Amino acid sequence: MATSATAGTAHGHAHAAKHPYHLVDPSPWPLVGSAGALLLTAGAVMWMHGSAGGKWVTLAGFATVIFTMFMWWRDVLAESYSGAHTDVVARGLRMGMLLFITSEVFFFFAFFWAFFWGALVPPELEAVSWPPQGVEPVPTWGIPFLNTLILLTSGTTVTWAHHAIKQNDQKTAFKALLLTVLLGLTFTGFQVYEYIHAYHEGFTLQSGMFGSTFYMATGFHGLHVQIGTVFLIVMMMRAWYGTLKPEKHVGFEAAAWYWHFVDVVWLFLFVWVYWWGGSLRWSTTGLG
C-alpha cells in the first residue's frame, strides 16, 4: 500500500503544472453572452424602428447579459478562492482591466469629439445656433455642481475602503463601500431629476447637435455610474463576508479603478459640456 501511495504521489507530481498560469475550464458563458449581446442590440434596433416584438427581444437580451455576467463572475470568484489566481494571473487580470478602461477612454473621446465639433465647426449651409433657439442649457452651478461634489466625495470613500482592506479591517471597508454606493445612487437620482426637468423645459435629445451630444455623453456616463455602483455593491457584500484579503483583492482594485475613471470623466463633462458648452453662445445665418 505504501508503495502504491508513493507511486501515486510521484505520478501526481509528474503531471503538476510547471507554470504559474491558470488554464480555465471549458465555459458556456462566452457563447451565451454573445447570444445575449446579439439579442440586446438586434432588439434595440427593432424597438427603435417600431417593431412589435422589439421591446421583448431587447428585454430578453438584457436579461441574458445580466445572467451571463452573474454566472461568469461567480466562476471567476470560485477560481480565485481555489487558489488558481497566482500572482502572475492576478497581474494579467489587472492588465486586462486597465486595457478595458483604456477602451472606455476612447469611447468617451468620441462623444467629446462630436461635442467640440458641433460647438466649434458649425455647418455653413444652414442657419444654426448654439444652443438651439428656445433651448436653455442645464445651469452649471445647480445639480451638475452638486453631483460633482458627490462623485469627488465617493472617490474619497472608495479610497478609504481600499486602505481599510489593506489593514484587513473588513468592517470599516464595508462601511466605506456602503457610503460610496449611497453616493453613487444619490448621483443617479439627481441626474434623473435633471433630465426630467430639462425635458419639460424643452431641452431634449432632438435639440440639435447640442442636445444629442449632451445626452449621449452624460447619459452614457450615467450608465457607467450605475454599472460601477453594482460593481461596488458586489465588493461591499464581499467585505461583509470578509473575503477581501489584504494580500490579494484584484476584484476590488478593478472596481476602484473603474470608479475613479467614472469620476475623471465626470470632471471633463462638468468643465467642458456643462460649464464651457453651456455658456457658449453663437449663431450663423448659413449660405442659403
Description:
- It is a single chain.
- The protein has helices spanning 2-14, 29-48, 54-81, 87-120, 143-166, 170-200, 208-240, 250-279; strands spanning 129-130, 282-283.
- The protein has 288 residues and is an all-alpha fold.
- The protein has two domains: 22-84, Helix Hairpins, CATH 1.10.287; 88-288, Cytochrome c oxidase, subunit III, four-helix bundle (Four Helix Bundle (Hemerythrin (Met), subunit A), Up-down Bundle), CATH 1.20.120.80.
- A two-stranded antiparallel sheet has the order 1-2.
- It is globular and about 70 Å long.
- The relative contact order is 0.12.
- The model is unreliable at 1-15 (pLDDT under 50).
Which descriptors would you attach to this protein?
mainly alpha, about 75% helix, Four Helix Bundle (Hemerythrin (Met), subunit A), 2 strands, disordered N terminus, about 290 residues
